[in-house]
Every structure is written in C-alpha cells, then in structure tokens.
C-alpha cells in the first residue's frame, strides 16, 4: 500500500511545500523582535569574563516548582549557596537540633516531675532521684542538649537510670548528632576545596588578537596559571563561535554554536603545561572558520561571541575543573600580537615568566582584508 503526500498538515496552509509557513514566521518574528528589543541594543554577552553564564529565569516561570526540585538535590543546593547563606544554614542546623532535643528533654523532666525548683531542697524529696540531674527548666534542658550532642560534659547535668525514655533519647541524640556533624563538616570541606577556588589562579587574556602566523591570519588569546608547583594535567581547550542565526524554515536559533579549531603551536588542543605557565591559543582563520569572511572593518559591526573553554585536572588534588571566558568583537584587536612573557633567567639556570605582560600587545603589520580575500 502506497501512501500519498499528506496535505494540509498544518491548519490554514494550502500545501506542504518548503515555503515559509505564516504562523511559524509570525512566531519567529516575535522571537526576533523580543531578541532585538531596544533594551538589548548593546552587545549581549552569554558568558561573562569571569566565566559566569548570564542567563536568568524569566518572571513567573514556575520558580516555586524549581525550588521544590532543588530541595530534592540538597547536596548541590548547599554547594551552590553563597557563603553567608551557607554559614547561616550551618548554624541553624546545629542550633535547631539542640533546640528540638532540648524541648524533648524538658518534656521528659516535666512528666517526671523534675521541673519544680523547690523539689530539690524539699525534705520529703531528699531521696528522690531525678531523670536528669539539675534539669528543672527549659534553659537547663537546652544546655543539657548542647552538652550531650557536643560531648562537652561539664559534670553538673547528667542522666540517671531512673527513666528509660531518657536513656533511649540519649542514644538517639548521640546518633543524630554524629550524623549532623559528619554531614555538615563534609559539606564545609567540600565547599572549601572546590576546584573553582583553585581555578581562580588560571587567567584568560582580556583581549584577543588577529594577526599573521606563518603567513595565515589567526585569532589568538592567552591562558596563564599563576600558581607554582601545582601542575595541570590532561589540559584541553575548545572554542565556540556563538551568534543568532535562522534555519531555512525560518526558525530562529538564539545561540547558534560553531566549533572553532584551536591549537598551541604544533601540539594540537592538548598541550604540555609547566607550572606556572602562559600559552597562546591559536585559531587559524581558514575556509572552515566562521571568521573567514570578516575583515578588520566589518568585524566591529558584527554581533557574535567567542566562548573559550579550558579544562583539565589539578595534579595535587586530582580534581577536574572547567574555566570559561568570552570575547566580543570589540575585544578583538586586529593587527596586534601578544608580548612574549617567558625569558631565560640570568640568576638561575632556567626560565622566568613576567605576568605583568600578560595582557600587553604590540601592533604589527597585518592585512586589513578578510582571510577569504588574502
């Protein structure tokens, strides 16, 4: 059985030809107008210079549901908290557990008739043994809760064998306190030792350059590591060209990504890195490059973003990391070259690096035409 062509699959369309569909064109026109709103007339940046993604939730887009989903992943929620909120939560967890158990201890003392102060000095109750000695109010119960969970044990307040519920509660609080201690200390250590704290020592140059290298136009930027004696192994670089584009069907792609092949000298995208280091990453502007038809004049009027990604593993801790940055057209210096930073040391047998030159460039003779016309 042969199936013929399906007609009018979209209501109101006369045929299924490759022409622009009216309602799809309207939809994408709305997207284009919203994207090119006057408030967005300035250059938009997807990735900031410090690597942060400039994307936020739109108002009234189910943020309550997002918060509920975040609570189902408490570990990453804690890791993503800012330090003030993290330390506040850290303190509230401990104080809350002390408060809850203090309330339970106070209820046990109340039902055991230990909450009346004068009972301790009454002759008729001289031989009476309380459930917990010196616990006769909520404040004393709260102090006993802190002493129990933190194993301080001043010796004034102590549990007796008179009430079984007190013994069970003591065991339960000790176990809960141990779990809270291990969890919160583990979270604190993980947050302190996150690789992004170490990755702050890895820098991208503020500007990229376009100049000739071996007779070919190349886009270049620098990556440097300030820390000594902490090598980065398995380093790899990647670069993406991001620009708003549309398909043949008039579908608007807000962030159309094109891969840009990068290399360091002749080592490809996996270079050898000493410590400290500074490398110049190069992208040859050839037929496969999205910059192939751009010249020094028209590149300034283009709207695109070049996102750079550097990832690897710290040798000392074995932690993987990823660092990002980006360059807008106004941050590309045509006809400039980076100043050399590495030189032979005079005092010792080796080399020395000068990071004061990290962002310095010099103007060199470079064709102003595009690589296509070169």
Automatic annotation (TrEMBL):
The chain crosses the membrane at residues 85-108, 166-190. InterPro entries: Ig_E-set, IRK_C, K_chnl_inward-rec_Kir, K_chnl_inward-rec_Kir_cyto, Kir_TM. The keyword Ion transport applies. Residues 202-373 form the Inward rectifier potassium channel C-terminal domain. It is a multi-pass membrane protein. The keyword Ion transport applies. SUPFAM superfamilies: E set domains, Voltage-gated potassium channels. The record marks 181 as: Role in the control of polyamine-mediated channel gating and in the blocking by intracellular magnesium. It is found in: Membrane. GO terms for molecular function: inward rectifier potassium channel activity. It comes from the Eukaryota. GO terms for cellular component: monoatomic ion channel complex; plasma membrane. GO terms for biological process: potassium ion import across plasma membrane; regulation of monoatomic ion transmembrane transport. It catalyses: K(+)(in) = K(+)(out). Keywords: Ion channel, Ion transport, Membrane, Potassium, Potassium transport, Transmembrane, Transmembrane helix, Transport, Voltage-gated channel. Residues 47-195 form the Potassium channel inwardly rectifying transmembrane domain. Belongs to the inward rectifier-type potassium channel (TC 1.A.2.1) family. PANTHER family: INWARD RECTIFIER POTASSIUM CHANNEL, INWARDLY RECTIFYING POTASSIUM CHANNEL 1, ISOFORM F. This is Uncharacterized protein. The gene is LOC102353246.
